Amino acid sequence: MKLQLALDRLSREECFRILEETKASVDIIEVGTGVIKEYGMEIVRQVRARYPDKTIVADMKTCDAGKHEAKQAFDAGADITTVMAFSGDLTITDTLRVAKEHGSRIMIDLLEVDKAERVEELVGLGVDLVSLHVGKDKQQEGSFDTGLFALVKDHDIEVTVAGGINADTLPDIIEGKPNTVIVGSAITKAKSPREAAVQLKELLSQG
Ligand SMILES: O=C([C@H](O)CO)[C@H](O)[C@H](O)COP(=O)(O)O
């Protein structure tokens, strides 16, 4: 199981400090939506330049103008870019096509999706990587809900999970056997991001 570090609500300097501290434990670097909004695609280019061997996700949360936004992410050096599940089917297929042309991938963010039918449709469109996600705002009512695994149980696709995940909640989540666990705040807001990442990575290795 891989560990994906989400860099959200951080300055450029904080992003690079935390990356340096945690790089040994982190498999995938996610440049968060808010960080991209603050610094533009340039921050993705800078992360790529500094970490040429890491897998990089640009959390673009695209929902329209898919071809253009996917190209922006891949041209900046991302290996994977995110597209919202509620987007029109043409946005999904356009972004999948751009990803194929670039030898890259699309991760579909299932934020607020509660019907397995949408997942079925997405898989029918060619989607092979999704994120089960409890959003930052919704986390006021509770963090990642393992009930979300039901959405993907009938499909042979790669699954990532996100939403306020930490060392206390991780053991239950591991039971669902996701391919990748995305962690933001539990690492970036920790007193020692390095120690937090080491602990989470250890739990994932045991899982
Ligand atoms: O995608 C995310 C969220 O929508 C903010 O942009 C986060 O990267 C994701 O939820 C992981 O962060 P934490 O919830 O802080 O672990």
Question: Could you explain how this protein is built, in words?
Answer:
It is built from 9 helices and 8 strands. It has 207 residues and is α/β, with parallel strands linked by helices. It has one domain: Aldolase class I (TIM Barrel). It has an 8-stranded parallel β-barrel with strand order 1-2-3-4-5-6-7-8, surrounded by 5 helices. Helix 4 (66-75) links the parallel strand 3 and strand 4. Helix 2 packs across helix 3 and helix 4 packs parallel to helix 5. The protein is globular. The chain starts with a strand and ends with a helix. Ligand LJD2ZHX5 is lined by residues 6, 8, 32-34, 59, 135-136, 162-165, 182-186.
Topology:
Layout: E1 2-7, H1 12-22, E2 28-31, H2 33-39, H3 41-50, E3 55-62, H4 66-75, E4 80-84, H5 89-102, E5 105-109, H6 116-124, E6 129-133, E7 158-162, H7 170-174, E8 180-183, H8 185-188, H9 193-206
Parallel strand pairs: 1-2, 1-8, 2-3, 3-4, 4-5, 5-6, 6-7, 7-8
Helix pairs in contact: 2-3, 4-5
The chain binds ligand LJD2ZHX5.
The site of the ligand O=C([C@H](O)CO)[C@H](O)[C@H](O)COP(=O)(O)O has 17 residues, from helix 2, strand 8 and helix 8.
For this entry, give a set of tags.
20% strand, alpha/beta, eight-stranded parallel barrel, TIM Barrel, single chain, 207 residues, binds ligand LJD2ZHX5
What can be said about this structure in brief?
InterPro entries: 3-hexulose-6-phosphate_synth, Aldolase_TIM, HPS/KGPDC, OMPdeCOase_dom, RibuloseP-bd_barrel. Its EC number is 4.1.2.43. With 207 residues, this protein is of the alpha/beta class.
